[in-house]
Each structure stands twice: as structure tokens, then as C-alpha cells.
What does this fold into?
Amino acid sequence: MGIDAVATMDGDGQHLATDIPRLAAVSRLYPRAVIIGARLLDREQQPASRRRANEVADWWVSWACAQPIVDTQSGQRWYPRAALELVDSAPKGFVFETAILIRAAREAGLDVVSIPIASRYQVNFRHSHFRPVVDTLRITAHIATCMFRYGQPVSSFHRAQLRPTIVAVQSDGASTTPSRSVSIDQMQKLTHGRRMSV
It folds into this structure.
């Protein structure tokens, strides 16, 4: 494999290519991590039902990964080579994003780091092919299978309750620089409900 990393983003308009340099900047600080563009800014744009569903998914996927993860359902990600080596054997379809996170954490020993990006629900997105009932059941079944396979549910649960790694990224237009790790509460105080320049 002649590449060091791959950046991904959903094709429905939720993500911007201009956020990718932020993922790349953070990857240099955390080379052994999957970097997620977490939709933590402008969260009032998210439908309440979607936000609650994402929070439930974060809880279960974090437990399966044995580490705390923010926005496990975001498709904007930076996968290092160690994660890419797991792709061929990962399930396909909408299970893939959950499966690759769990395998990267449990088999490759990778961390998962989040950077805040804006929630974008106010524009007309392309119709999603996600089937709420069928695909949710498949993802749930995969998580349950992984928790049984990797074992140690109690210690995994306790590790999943730790503080997630969220890195604020400052951009001056000419360069993009990770500034510091912040908690979700700290980030919300910094933004005061408004979009933060990251």
C-alpha cells in the first residue's frame, strides 16, 4: 500500500473539504489515531431526534472500542495506514464505519481523536440511502458481536467513560495549527452556542 492515510467525507453535503486540512494537522500530533470531524459546532442545526440517536450510538460504540469517542457516526475522518490495513476484512455498507472504528481500536491499538466541525443540516442534502430499521439492526448486531468477541465488558465500559480527546484547531488562513485538547464542556463554553473559528 503506497499511501500513508486516507481522508473521507459523506457525499450528502454535510461535510466540507475545507475541514480536511484540520484533520491532517491533528494527525501529525496523533499519528496512531483515527481522526474524526465531530459535529459539535452549531448543534442547534441538528434535528433533536438525530442528536439523540447519535448520542446513543456514541455510548455503545465507545464501549465496544473501550475508549470514549465523540460523534462515532460522522463520515468525515482521517484513517492512518494502520486502520487502512483492516479495510478489506471489515463489513461493507453502513456497518463499515462502526466496524472499522472498533477494529482500529481493539486490533490495531489506535486511538480515536475528534476535532470540532460545524453541524450542517440547514441545506438541501442529497437523499441518504440509510435504511433506519434494517441498517440500525445490522450495526447493533455488529456491536454486540464485537463486545462478545473482544470480551472484558466491565473494563471496556470503564475505559469508555473517560474524557474523550477533542482537539481545537486554529486556522489563520495561511496555516492550520492544533492548539490544545479541550473537553466538551470547555468547548461549549468557548463557543457560547456560536460557531467557533477552529
Q: What stands out?
A: The radius of gyration is 16 Å. The first strand starts at residue 5 and ends at 8. Residues 190-198 have pLDDT under 50 and may be disordered. The helical segments are 20-29, 48-65, 81-84, 96-106, 132-150, 153-160, 184-191.
